[in-house]
TrEMBL record:
Purpose: Guanylyltransferase that catalyzes the activation of phosphoenolpyruvate (PEP) as enolpyruvoyl-2-diphospho-5'-guanosine, via the condensation of PEP with GTP. It is involved in the biosynthesis of coenzyme F420, a hydride carrier cofactor.
GO molecular function, one term: phospholactate guanylyltransferase activity
Record bears the keyword Kinase: no
Protein name: Phosphoenolpyruvate guanylyltransferase
Family under the similarity heading: Belongs to the CofC family.
The protein's Enzyme Commission number: 2.7.7.105
Pathway the protein acts in: Cofactor biosynthesis; coenzyme F420 biosynthesis
EC main group: transferase
Keywords associated with the record: GTP-binding, Nucleotide-binding, Nucleotidyltransferase, Transferase
PANTHER family: 2-PHOSPHO-L-LACTATE GUANYLYLTRANSFERASE
Organism: Micromonospora zamorensis
Cited InterPro entries: CofC, Nucleotide-diphossugar_trans
Catalytic activity: phosphoenolpyruvate + GTP + H(+) = enolpyruvoyl-2-diphospho-5'-guanosine + diphosphate
């Protein structure tokens, strides 16, 4: 049986406000360029994933919107309610495919095959249940997936892995290091670089006068 194809919702904050914990991580690189590169490399991998039929970027940022449209994604502005979970809900309401996943836009090492593996895993197991992929530290969430007809009901934010589990979603714990490697800090960026960065982020790291600090 062929794998159903997914709609993936990717929210991206206004670049001036995004990724504040990463500010100054790459010396000589404007912060907004780094925030944009992280999102562009994430989107590139999502768009290259064969399991994905539709990519919907939710953003109020004009540069992000232009980059997303140019790469082949659809774009929606943030809805009437503020914040990350409202952006996920707004995006999910705008999708057309049956299976819906929400994915954070800070995964610059993401490999399409690992995303495909996680989406396939999300379709197996108990029917009608949401699934989530915890981030590398285990406390956060990088991906939340819902079957057709089941609301995404996102609970992203601090301790979101616990919040998603408490809301009835089941964790997926496959071997997907590039999917689980979200980048919030300079140490995370160094860890992502060890996995292999997408081209936009890699170019900025190479151009930096002081490269990403090591995680050690
Ligand atoms: N559209 C939209 N995206 C958001 C919003 N808040 C966060 N995001 C995105 O959600 C993803 C995960 O959020 P965080 O890891 O907390 O990123 P962040 O808020 O940019 O980072 P910090 O400032 O360091 O907390 C990132 O891709 C953000 O760009 C929001 O209000 N609207
Ligand atoms: C948004 C999240 O966290 P962070 O900002 O730590 O990536 C999350 O893990 O739900």
């Amino acid at each position: 049986m062929s794998q159903p194809r997914w709609a993936v919702v990717v929210p991206v904050k206004h670049l001036a406000a995004a990724k504040s914990r990463l500010r100054g991580a790459l010396s000589g690189v404007p912060h907004e360029e780094l925030a944009l590169a992280l999102a562009a490399d994430t989107l590139r991998a999502v768009l290259a994933c064969p399991a994905v039929a539709e990519v919907l970027v939710v953003t109020d940022d004009a540069r992000v919107a232009a980059a997303a449209l140019g790469a082949g994604a659809r774009v929606l502005p943030d809805g009437p309610d503020a914040g990350l979970n409202a952006a996920f809900r707004h995006g999910a309401a705008g999708t057309t495919a049956g299976w819906v996943a929400g994915l954070t836009a800070d995964l610059p090492a993401l490999r399409p095959a690992e995303l495909a593996g996680a989406l396939l895993a999300a379709q197996n197991g108990r029917e009608g249940v949401r699934r989530f992929v915890p981030d590398a530290p285990g406390s956060g969430t990088v991906l939340l997936a819902a079957p057709p007809g089941v609301p995404l009901d996102p609970r992203f934010g601090v301790s979101s892995a616990l919040a998603h589990a408490a809301s009835g979603a089941l964790p997926l714990t496959g071997d997907w290091p590039s999917l689980r490697r979200d980048v919030d800090t300079a140490a995370d960026l160094a860890a992502a670089a060890r996995l292999g960065l997408g081209p936009r982020t890699a170019a900025l790291v190479a151009a930096a006068s002081r490269p990403a600090r090591s995680a050690g």
